[in-house]
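Following up on my earlier thread - several people asked me to post the actual chain instead of describing it. Fair enough. Here it is, all 82 residues.
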Amino acid sequence: MLKITRVDIIDGQTLDIELSNGHLILFDIRQLPETDHIYDSLRDLEVLPRPSTDGRSVFWRDGPRLALEEILRWLTVQKNNE
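Reply from S.P.:
Thanks for posting it. Predicted structure:
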């Protein structure tokens, strides 16, 4: 089963996510759907605070949570829209 092994922030708005299979995902928070208002608090920040992971998701203390499945789905949607 695919898991998140590490997560960090680069350039203030991009998640650097390492997966258990060795792949890296660079995910720009500004690409989150604007219709999902639970992410407004992240989009409003100039520099994101460092997130944590439980292996299944990326989350911020007292903030939103991004499941790995959601991240992979959004990446697929973005690729198809290019």
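DSSP finds two helices and six strands in the chain. That should answer part of your original question.
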